[in-house]
Write a structure and sequence with these properties.
Length: 424
Amino acid sequence: MRAHSIIEALLAEKQLGYLPQQEEDAHLRSWAAAMNSLGLQPVTQINEQDRGAFLQQMSNDGKTFSDYIFGPGLKPGTIIAYQADNTKKVSEDLSKELRSQGFKVPVGAPMSVAVTLIQSKVSEDISRRAHEEKATTHTELLGSNPDVDALSKLHGEQFLAQLPAATRALVKGIADYQINPTTSSIRGGRRELVLGLVKQYDPSFDQTAYNSRARVRQDFTSGKAAFNIRSLNTAVSHLDELSRAAEGLENRSVSWWNTVVNKGLTVTGDPRVTTFNVAANAVESELASVFKGMGATDQEIKAWREQLSASQSPAQLRGNINEAITLMSGRLSALRAQWQVGMGKPADFRILSNESRNILNRLGHTDITAADTPGTPAQAAQATQHAAPQLPPAVQAQLAEGQATTFGNGQTWTLRNGQPVRLK
């Protein structure tokens, strides 16, 4: 076994601050004694990121640094004895070996000279390996010959389109808070580079808010917000049925005349009045699901249904349908605001389905469908600058829509369309 390999191994382990976690304390004390017998001092010029990458690889492989150099057969007691009995020989062997590798070591040089040279070599080797890993990571994430200058000027979808497919999926997943960035390895500066790409794609991305924003996304995919979105689209579909049923009644402008005609239709077995009432009840039921637990709005829905009648004039029927749509529009705006406050950027999806959009457009509510437009990462920076103020969840839970609440610090807040607004 070459003497410099032994010393290099011990230097590397002490330099990296590595201790095998699953070894007995006695074994660790033996290693410490072996290193102390050589008078080795830790080297400090290795940066923490490179050190962490090596420690992670050793942990993943279940090896010590010395295993990489000369295998698992090294015994610390052997090193102590060898050093104590053969100090001069170690120095001579080591000097000879180093000279054969190009190191300028004088004949008979003291051990300290050899140790200093080995320390430098270990540092250079680790730095070289770290540089090679970073180059490999750069190629893996950006391709073999990326136009870095051109990429640095792009953002959003234009930037994303220039990345390799695998990197594109990773960046998009992290920016959407669907992939936790901590799952990316720190080796070769991978995580640092990935986060830089994510931030360039979407300037609003905030790693420190990952957990809270991931919960918001989950709410919109499988939680209460997702249920609200489904109910909204179902309610729009029922309103379409109600609108068509109202047209099918062929009512006139005089309500008492419509009452007489509809009574005759029902007596003769015509289904049009029944169809209208079924559609109206379906709209009421779905609106109740949309606004469940929202107090005043529940009363509005009940009042809306009570005033809706198959005997109303066409203008009255259209007015009632428009009133229901206005109620839903408020909830739609609140959902968009909820997303933007929670995620720090506009929603990158439409809340309304294509069918709902077509229905609302047919009913003349193009303003609602126009407002339901997906945001893009290019708008993220502006959205971040003008985002509504955020409050701790426990504080925001005390706010009510349209009601002023004053806290102990003298500040007064309210909710407007689901967003916290400071009044003073």
